[in-house]
Amino acid sequence: MQREITTINTTAFDQYESNVRSYCRSFPTVFRQAQGALLYNEQQRAYIDFFAGAGALNYGHNNPQIKQVLLEYLESDQIMHGLDMYTSAKRSFLERFNQVILAPRNLPYKVQFCGPTGANAVEAALKLARKVTGRTSVISFMGGYHGLSLGGLAVTGNADHRAAAGVPLAHTNFLPYPRGPLAAIDSLNYLETVLTDTHSGFDKPAAIILETIQAEGGIYVAPTEWLQGLRHLCDRHGIVLICDDIQVGCGRTGSFFSFEDAGIVPDLVTLSKSISGYGLPMALVLIKPEYDQWQPAEHTGTFRGNQLAFVGATAALDYWQTDTFSKAIHTLAQQLETFLQTQLLPLDQRLTIRGKGLVWGIDFAELGPAASKAIMQECFAQGLIIERVGRGDSVLKIMPPLTIDSALLAQGCAILQQVVQTYLASTKE
User: Fold this and answer.
1) What Cα–Cα distance (Å) separates residue 154 from each residue in 159, 173, 232?
2) What is the CATH number of domain 11-63+323-427?
3) Which segments of 164-221 are extended strands (E)?
4) How far, in Å, CA of 353 to CA of 159, rounded?
5) What is the DSSP string of 357-420?
6) Less Cβ around it within 10 Å: N or C end of the chain?
7) Helix or strand or coil: residue 4?
8) Percent residues over pLDDT 90 in the chain
9) For residue 237, what is the enclosing H or E element?
10) Taking Cα atoms as reference points, which of 418, 348, 347, 426 lies closest to residue 383?
11) Distance between CA atoms of 283 and 123, rounded to whole angstroms?
12) Which positions ≥6 away from 129 have C-beta within 8 Å?
């Protein structure tokens, strides 16, 4: 393992790009190429990717299977931009998505194509829930992350993100998530109580929005029984249940949707990031038919017709024709969890781990505020890209492409283990 010693040229970025740039500050090199679970900088140094484009690259960088289909489409002079007009590429995706994903799971969702970001899908889902119910307020959960547009920020818990809004963020009530700092508070019992108490002063919400795994919030996994209880509560009170599957959907937990293991069916589901299969901009809202009450053009977006994304998404669905891919994810997940349990946790009793499938977090909070940043920076110096999340950014998030090779996963884990060992040793000196 060697540190990056070559001087990189970032003059153009420093001179011309806005100060809002973020990830480049954590991973300070100029990337040029990528393949699978490896990124290469301009000096051709390889980096193992435990970041996967913040969850947008579940099928890896430049997936050859998807790339070939995209190249063929590009060379054919077919439609590239179509707004929401009927196109061959859109029809192929809709038919394939229903055949491979929705119909086998008995999910008769209607598909809304919105602006091509996860935040836009959240905005659309919130608007639709309010339209359907005629109610205004929304319930979200502490630690939740749903995007940085104003509607997304209103249901996002992070104080630093919310502070940048510049206007009051209203019409949201936050409840404790069933895992995390306030997990001892029974949020479902509280909600049931205030909804049935005529003197609670609590207005019935239009919707409840949640992530089954709070990824940016620190890798907290909601219990199955809690998710089922939440579904029943929404049914009893006529509340729209929105599942934000933008980061932990599309196979991240092993099944295509993160809520499948709980046996629940949300009323609305937001998808983005890896739904396009290739890192192309695309976002969807899946809508139970009875809630599809939009009037034409009530929620539009110039790039809701990204034809190339439709083509990539259709090709990516080939992975889900059988259960082979899901089984492979579970095998890799078991390898990762075994490493964390047997190799990493024993290094220090202050460490904790949380996760499911191929999204796991290592919580360094008890080692002090400097630990996670120092370890992330040294991992990068040793050729491993890994992100920090959670309160105080104290959690290292392991989120490799779902297609990562077992040996490369082990190699990345070995780097992480060595860096953590070295850091722990340095703090005892």
Assistant:
1) 11, 9, 25
2) 3.90.1150.10
3) 172-175, 207-210, 213-214, 220-221
4) 24
5) TTEEEEE-GGG-TTHHHHHHHHHHHTTEE-EEESGGG-EEEE---TT--HHHHHHHHHHHHHHH
6) C
7) coil
8) 97
9) helix 224-237
10) 418
11) 11
12) 138, 206, 207, 240, 242, 267, 268, 291
Give me the chain's average pLDDT, please.
96
Distance CA 427, CA 429 (A): 6
Please tell me the predicted confidence (pLDDT) of residue 6.
Answer: 61
pLDDT tens digits for range 44-69: 999 999 999 999 999 999 999 999 99
Give the pLDDT band (50/70/90) at residue 4: very low
H helix or E strand, kind and range, residue 422: helix 406-427
* pLDDT-derived band at 429, boundaries 50, 70, 90: low
Are 268 and 288 spatial neighbours (Cβ–Cβ below 8 Å)?
yes
Judge contact between 361 and 355, C-beta under 8 A. yes
The reported pLDDT for the residue numbered 17 is 93
Q: Which CATH class is domain 78-320?
A: alpha beta
- Strands in 99-167 per DSSP E: 110-113, 138-141
Angle at 352 between CA 47 and CA 57, to 5 degrees: 35
- The domain ranges of the chain are 11-63+323-427, 78-320
What does the block give as tokens for 397?
A: 């998030």
Planar angle of CA 121, 126, 128, nearest 5 degrees = 95
Residue 381 burial (10 A CB sphere; 0-12, 13-18, 19+): middle
